[in-house]
Amino acid sequence: RVLVGTKVDESHANWVTAYNMLTGIRVSVSRTNAKVDRPLTDADFEVKQKSTFDIAGNELVPSAKYDFKFKDYAPWVFRHLRALFRLDPADYLISLTGKYILSELGSPGKSGSFFYFSRDYKYIIKTIHHAEHKFLRQILKDYYQHVKENPNTLLSQFYGLHRVKMPYGRKIHFVVMNNLFPPHRDIHQTFDLKGSTVGRDYKEEDLEKNPRATLKDLNWLRRKRHLELGLQKKQLFLAQLQKDVRLLQRLQIMDYSLLVGIHDVQRGNEENLRDKTLRVFNPGGNNTPEDFDPNSVLMRTPSKLENQRKARELRQMIQSEKPVPMGETSSRMPDELEEGHSRPGFIFNQDDGGFRATHEDNAPGDEIYYLGVIDCLTHYGIIKKIEHFWKGLSSDRSQISALPPQEYGERFINFISNVTMSQEEALRVAQEREAA
Ligand code: ATP
Ligand code: CA
Ligand code: CA
Fold this sequence. Notes:
CATH architecture of the largest domain: 2-Layer Sandwich
Oligomer: single chain
Strand order of the largest sheet: 2-1-3-7-8-6-5-4-12
Strand content: 15-25%
Shape: globular
Radius of gyration: 22 Å
CATH superfamily of the largest domain: 2-Layer Sandwich
Distance between the termini: 58 Å
Bound molecules: adenosine-5'-triphosphate, calcium ion
Protein name: 1-phosphatidylinositol-4-phosphate 5-kinase
Domain PIPK: 11-420
Order of helices and strands: HEEEHHEEEHEEEEHHEHEHHEEHHH
């Protein structure tokens, strides 16, 4: 297995960047968490808190010669958001910064954003474009209000908005958000659905070499798939989706998708971490298992000894299917210990962290869905207008993906509503069609 000689410089650059991201989060989030809670004010939404760090991650006076600078945006708002999403403050910091290990996914989408997982896979760091960053700050109050009124929102859960800058370096903006997929369950199939058919096809023949690729709308339709929810769950799900999409329409957002991760209960967790790693490693689906490179796991390890120890733990983690808490010896945890991942009080996480397929008589189905609306920071701005213009010349207008937000939302809701039905209902619909 070739581990050396590939992109050392680049991965080194990312190593430093990731280290700086995590150090900044550790210092700034601890600083905010250390204070006594208080209600938010309007000014909290505008705050930018600057810090300056030396190479060891120590905070410096702002004018000193620095190794990197860090900005924390609206720290009190995000503290309150994390509380609304019921994250434990200590847990959050430990997951993200406790041992400085992240897996890097590289850049799965077309946007060039980078994705990193926290070592326990609970959180995702996504680097975002400056325009997305500015836009999130602009809509933060609406987003916050929406989360407050909709604790079960399906929208991406934002936990922090930050920026790092190295001397002479680029400014890198990033968000911390929820990983929709559970660390403890294999996801057997993933779909990214927009309700559009143009360009929304993952080449079926590529599935062989990449069985865990993220599939799209046309793959979904080809499989005659449904979100098999019985009446009650269907109603809960669509009602929340409607509310979320109304917000996105009002804020002139588009290009978002419903991410659907499917755990097949019959198959369970039989597959090894190689598959699991594939899933988490490149959700965009352009990687093969061979692309998983332990070197791409970023570690802050100043000493060689520590490096070796962590590498050992990492290997254990990779071999044992589940992230091993640092310092513990690895043995695969029995399944019953892995339970308890449902998030009490959150409707769409009630069944082992997800939402279980259900028959019309309320009997549980064979699948658990992990659902959420992702990539919701694209404002229908000038670029999309241009794209719309060009694509609109050649395609059926309602099928192109860069529609104005109102139409985009309608099409999105329509598509998802049409494919949300119990097995029984799907069967009836198919029979009626045949009869007609
Ligand atoms: P593009 O703009 O080209 O669509 P992007 O860089 O904005 O790409 P996203 O669409 O946000 O990227 O995400 C790309 C893929 O990463 C998704 O299809 C999904 O597989 C995975 N992903 C993104 N967000 C999450 C999340 N919160 N939980 C789990 N997986 C995610
Ligand atoms: Ca996307
Ligand atoms: Ca995007």
